[in-house]
């Protein structure tokens, strides 16, 4: 960096060398398993590939133009968008409701907190198998309830109209535990004094919720909204076990579509192009979050 | 006075009903795991008797012990690996000031914008070229570095008074000794949080083990569940649910024990 032969350049750069040494494991792993494959994915998205995933024929933007005109891919994007819309708002409102309830200082509240957070300890595979049973056309609990109430039966996972909704319901359940834990943590970080002074003013519960709780919780809320959005775009396991993308492609969400294109159809070029599109979506979501947090969120 | 009692009753009511609904699927799966085929067809909630036939059967039909062992090995490896790699990086970010540190920090932040699924195709071929398909290292090594984990530990390290570093330098401790003998012991709680988080997420991982295991040598329980479900589906729900219960018990226990800790630690790591 400097040509000055002052004594101690080596010594003064000691921090730099040692610092890098401590960071080296992370840097190497990120380079090998994140940055390199991301660049490679972008590269492959401009090629047709052979069976071993090597670039064979350069096709420029053809993979992208093919995707953007392919009804199957557009359908997959639409399903993904709908899925995000079904799961994120409901999931967060539900988790917030649970967190508000569980934030009351009552006897035995620890038990309820454990119940609400329990789904975080249950894997996507296990949850999916449980929900596969709950959605079962004849022995499943939902259709049994419908039968008792004398409503028509629903082919939850087999009906193209219902399959995505069914997946969304099970996904909301799977994510409740994590969102709940994060939101409860956020609620508990709010300074008690804020509430005490408002109580003296005689403010009601919902007034306090709107004027104190939600604004003070906004950093946590933004965090969990971003995480939920990203998670929704990355949904895979429940699709693989519950519907395999069907019926008639109605639940073929983007990650499942990438997986199928790459590891079942061996079309690594178009699969990579889909992966790049996924990357761009996530990038935009994250950047938007950063921008919004800077401007809007209320920090103490 | 009567007002607040009424409010309490109302809250307890909501708590009971909603938490029951949340826990119902698990409870139901637990009940089903003790039922015979005909009991399930009848639509009962409680089994006639708690016998463990289905559990015996599930260990018979799948190499479930092997899968459980694999899951433990992979989850523990990732947990230890993450703790080592993340704590070293977090230490550098807090205690070793050097030029360009902010740039490296930005690099870490940028990793959070790359969805892992967008990189899985080249990663699969990397592992294949290393001849690491069906190996523990192929299952675990890609997940050792974690920006979230680094930030979580950095948050905690920042609360450690700088005077401690000066004192240790005067006492003649080397940097690594300071890291190993002072920083890590006082950060036990954060390390436990990250460890539990790492174990939990690895135990529950699905897509990566699905891609890189082709036989039962390192296959994890999650893929075992998929196998079980596709083998047994029309026949024996009791056996399938017994498998589910076996698979979720370790992580549920971990969560029940560490719930308070996780909640505190995760919300700290979430917000700078």
Secondary structure blueprint with pairings:
The complex is a heterodimer of chains A (300) and B (272).
Chain A: H1 9-12, H2 14-44, E1 47-49, E2 55-58, H3 62-69, H4 71-102, H5 109-117, H6 124-134, H7 141-148, H8 163-188, H9 192-200, H10 205-233, H11 237-242, H12 254-263, H13 268-295
Antiparallel strand pairs in A: 1-2
Chain B: H1 2-32, H2 37-42, H3 53-61, H4 64-95, H5 101-111, H6 120-129, H7 136-140, H8 147-158, H9 162-170, H10 175-186, H11 188-203, H12 207-212, H13 221-232, H14 237-270
Helix pairs in contact in B: 1-14, 3-14, 4-8, 4-11, 8-14, 11-14, 13-14
Features:
heterodimer; A: mainly alpha; 2 domains; two-stranded antiparallel ribbon; flat; B: 272 residues; mainly alpha; MetI-like fold
Would you write up a description of this structure?
The complex is a heterodimer of chains A (300) and B (272). With 300 residues, chain A is mostly helical. Chain A is built from 13 helices and 2 strands, in the order ααββααααααααααα. In chain A, helix 8 crosses helix 10 (205-233), helix 10 (205-233) packs antiparallel against helix 13 (268-295) and helix 12 packs antiparallel against helix 13. The longest helix of chain A has 32 residues, at 71-102. The mean pLDDT of chain A is 89. Chain B is an all-alpha fold and 272 residues long. Chain B has one domain (52-270): MetI-like fold, CATH 1.10.3720. Chain B is globular, with a radius of gyration of 23 Å. The mean pLDDT of chain B is 89. At the A-B interface, helix 2, helix 4, helix 5, helix 6 and helix 8 of A face helix 1, helix 4, helix 5, helix 6 and helix 12 of B.
Give the overall shape of chain B, derived from the CA principal axes. globular
Strand order in the sheet with the most strands of chain A: 1-2
Task: Compute the CA-based radius of gyration of chain A.
Answer: 25 Å
Rg measurement of chain B, Å: 23 Å
CATH class of chain B: Mainly Alpha
Number of domains of chain B: 1
Unreliable runs of chain A, pLDDT <50, ≥5 residues? none
**If you average the pLDDT of chain A, what whole number results?**
89
Number of helices of chain A: 13
Structural class of chain B: mainly alpha
| Fourth CATH level, the homologous superfamily of the largest domain in chain A | MetI-like
Our count of domains of chain A comes out at 2
Structural class of chain A: mainly alpha
Low-confidence stretches of chain B: none
Return the CATH topology of the largest domain in chain A.
Answer: MetI-like fold
User: Can you tell me the CATH class of the largest domain in chain A?
Assistant: Mainly Alpha
In the CATH hierarchy, the third-tier topology of chain B is known as MetI-like fold
Q: Name the beta content range of chain A.
A: under 5%
Order of helices and strands of chain B: HHHHHHHHHHHHHH
Tell me what the CATH architecture of the largest domain in chain A is: Orthogonal Bundle
């Amino acid at each position: 960096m400097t040509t000055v032969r002052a004594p101690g350049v080596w010594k003064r750069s000691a921090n730099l060398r040692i610092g890098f040494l401590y960071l080296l494991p992370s840097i190497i792993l990120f380079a090998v398993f994140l940055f390199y494959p991301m660049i490679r994915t972008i590269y492959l998205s401009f090629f047709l590939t052979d069976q071993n995933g090597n670039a064979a024929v350069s096709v420029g933007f053809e993979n992208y133009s093919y995707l953007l005109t392919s009804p199957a891919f557009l359908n997959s994007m639409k399903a993904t968008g709908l899925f995000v819309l079904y799961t994120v708002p409901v999931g967060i409102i539900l988790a917030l409701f649970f967190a508000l309830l569980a934030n009351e200082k009552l006897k035995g509240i620890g038990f309820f907190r454990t119940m609400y957070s329990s789904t975080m300890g249950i894997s996507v595979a296990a949850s999916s198998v449980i929900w596969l049973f709950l959605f079962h056309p004849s022995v499943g609990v939902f259709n049994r309830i419908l039968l008792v109430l004398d409503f028509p039966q629903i082919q939850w996972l087999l009906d193209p109209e219902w399959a995505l909704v069914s997946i969304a319901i099970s996904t909301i359940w799977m994510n409740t535990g994590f969102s709940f834990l994060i939101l409860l943590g956020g609620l508990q970080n709010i300074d008690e004094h804020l509430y005490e002074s408002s109580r003296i003013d005689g403010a009601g519960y919902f007034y306090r919720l709107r004027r104190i709780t939600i604004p003070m919780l906004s950093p946590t809320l933004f965090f969990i909204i971003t995480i939920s959005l990203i998670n929704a775009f990355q949904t895979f396991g429940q699709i693989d076990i519950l519907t395999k993308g069907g019926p008639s492609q109605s639940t073929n969400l983007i990650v499942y579509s990438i997986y199928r294109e790459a590891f079942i159809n061996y079309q690594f070029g178009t699969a990579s192009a889909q992966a790049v599109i996924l990357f761009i979506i996530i990038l935009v979501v994250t950047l938007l979050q950063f921008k919004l947090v800077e401007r809007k969120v209320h920090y103490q | 006075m009567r007002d607040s009692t009424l409010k309490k009753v109302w809250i307890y009511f909501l708590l009971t009903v909603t938490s029951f609904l949340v826990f119902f699927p698990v409870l139901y799966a637990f009940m089903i795991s003790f039922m015979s085929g005909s009991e399930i067809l009848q639509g009962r909630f409680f089994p006639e008797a708690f016998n463990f036939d289905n559990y015996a059967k599930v260990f018979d039909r799948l190499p479930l012990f092997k899968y459980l062992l694999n899951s433990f090995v992979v989850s523990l490896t990732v947990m230890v690996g993450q703790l080592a790699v993340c704590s070293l990086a977090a230490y550098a970010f807090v205690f070793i000031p050097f030029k360009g540190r902010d740039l490296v920090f930005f690099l870490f932040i940028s990793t959070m914008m790359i969805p892992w699924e967008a990189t899985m195709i080249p990663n699969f071929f990397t592992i294949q070229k290393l001849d690491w398909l069906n190996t523990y290292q192929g299952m675990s090594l890609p997940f050792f570095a974690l920006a979230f984990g680094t930030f979580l530990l950095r948050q905690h390290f920042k609360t450690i008074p700088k005077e401690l570093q000066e004192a240790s330098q005067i006492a003649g401790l080397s940097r690594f000794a300071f890291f190993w003998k002072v920083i890590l012991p006082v950060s036990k709680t954060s390390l436990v949080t990250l460890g539990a988080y790492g174990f939990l997420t690895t135990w529950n991982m699905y897509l990566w083990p699905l891609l890189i295991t082709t036989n039962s040598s390192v296959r994890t329980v999650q893929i075992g569940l998929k196998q079980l479900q596709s083998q047994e589906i029309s026949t024996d729900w009791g056996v399938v649910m017994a498998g589910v219960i076996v698979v979720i018990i370790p992580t549920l226990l971990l969560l029940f024990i560490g719930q308070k800790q996780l909640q505190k630690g995760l919300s700290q790591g979430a917000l700078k």
